[in-house]
Write a structure and sequence with these properties.
globular, Aspartate Aminotransferase, domain 1, Aspartate Aminotransferase, domain 2, alpha/beta, 14% strand, 7-stranded mixed sheet, binds pyridoxal-5'-phosphate, 43% helix
Length: 402
């Protein structure tokens, strides 16, 4: 029994979307922690495998708790179909590998999360797929790269960690003219702040580990797109290669979705306050936050996003030494490579998430040794600001003593 109406608004869909109650009438989504399913008869099993009847078969292919998660995310995204995966990287990998074959060509924005960059730059060429990177904010580079036929475009907007914005509509138009599908990693924007499918993207991928769980508990991922592509291209890949999510993790993600809008809204409000505080500090060389007046692509960000997100990136004057001193002096904000959590987390991308892309690529992306990525959580924003204030005062005291 489904209780939601697809016309319901996002906040309602986050709580009730996709909910399928069993005959027990449970309040919360049921957790079907089972690897397989039984049949009434051998004939029913045969008919199921021949696609003559609809029946769950095996949790690698599908599971009722996972289905509820997939339906809920699809409803929020406005997508025809969704498949959940074990991690965000499994989602990116499945979206790319299910679609591509030897001889194909990929164009990607340079500013990708480290592991996504590795798939495009290192893994795909091993299987005969050629790849080309462009600066995502430079439309002339997209135009040039997509004047040659291509099969797939991959991009992230806002990007990790420099919060670069890509013009989704303009790139989708160029990609389609070149024969490519557009895959958008929408992790930083979340399904609430930006709708890539409405702007022309064909596929959206998420690390559900980030805001969708948002409470540091489980890994998860999701791929969303048209029903035909999901059924004919993605599903056979997932069924046969097995990047499937555990029903338990899917159940936790369903619970995470219930509070997603409250958490993301609070995180965005706090992130804006933190960004404004940092911008006024003499020890900070620069702050990046999509909706701030000094973000070079503010207008574009405001056009395709409804808020700036929960991430703030800033550069401490004095390079790695100064950045480390600030991170180590913070008490409330913890050092971590994760993001999108209810707890505020600080990352030094050059030595962690973006270490393996190499110094040359980092330089092209503007990821200097002084850059810190701050994932703003749900603590009182004034406490986060006071923690940063204390850390910057400790840096100033150390400098004065030198
Ligand atoms: C933008 C982006 N895409 C993909 C991923 C991969 O997600 P996961 O860690 O869930 O595999 C991450 C983070 O890890 C990310 O920040």
């Amino acid at each position: 029994m489904t209780t939601h109406d697809p016309r319901h608004r996002t906040a309602t869909l986050l709580v009730q979307g996709g909910l399928e109650r069993s005959h027990h009438g449970e309040t919360a989504e049921a957790l079907y922690l089972t690897s397989g399913f039984v049949y009434d008869s051998a004939e029913q099993a045969e008919a199921t495998f021949a696609n003559q009847v609809v029946h769950y078969q095996y949790s690698r292919f599908g599971n009722p708790t996972v289905t509820m998660l997939e339906r809920r995310i699809a409803l929020i995204e406005g997508a025809e179909a969704c498949r959940a995966t074990a991690t965000g990287m499994a989602a990116v990998h499945a979206a790319l590998l299910s679609h591509l074959k030897a001889g194909d060509r990929v164009v990607a924005s340079r500013a990708l999360f480290g592991s996504c960059h590795w798939i495009v730059s290192t893994l795909l060429p091993r299987y005969g797929v050629t790849t080309e990177f462009v600066d995502g904010g430079d439309m002339a580079q997209w135009q040039k790269a997509l004047s040659t036929p291509a099969n797939l475009v991959l991009l992230e907007s806002p990007s990790n960690p420099m919060l670069e914005i890509v013009d989704l509509k303009a790139v989708a138009d160029l990609a389609h003219a070149a024969g490519a599908i557009v895959v958008v990693d929408n992790v930083f924007a979340t399904p609430l702040l930006q709708k890539p499918l409405e702007l022309g993207a064909d596929v959206v991928v998420y690390s559900c580990t980030k805001h969708i769980d948002g409470q540091g508990r489980v890994l998860g991922g999701a791929v969303l797109g048209r029903q035909k592509w999901v059924d004919e291209v993605l599903q056979p890949f997932i069924r046969n290669t097995g990047p499937s999510i555990s029903p338990f993790n899917a159940w936790l993600l369903l619970k995470g979705l219930e509070t997603l809008s409250l958490r993301v809204r609070a995180g965005c409000d706090s992130a804006e306050k933190v960004a404004n505080f940092l911008a006024g500090q003499p020890a900070i060389a620069r702050v990046w936050y999509p909706t701030r007046a000094d973000h070079p692509q503010r207008e574009l960000a405001m056009k395709q996003m409804t808020a700036g997100g929960t991430l703030v990136t800033f550069e401490v004057k004095g390079g790695k030494d100064a950045a480390f001193a600030v991170m180590n002096a913070m008490r409330l904000v913890k050092v971590s490579n994760n993001l999108g959590d209810s707890k505020s987390l600080a990352t030094h991308p050059a030595t962690t998430t973006h270490l393996r892309i190499g110094a040359e690529e980092r330089a092209k992306l503007g990821i200097t040794d002084g850059v810190i990525r701050l994932s703003v959580g749900l603590e009182d924003p004034q406490d986060i600001i006071e923690d940063l204030e204390g850390a910057l005062a400790a840096l100033a005291a150390r400098r004065a003593a030198e």
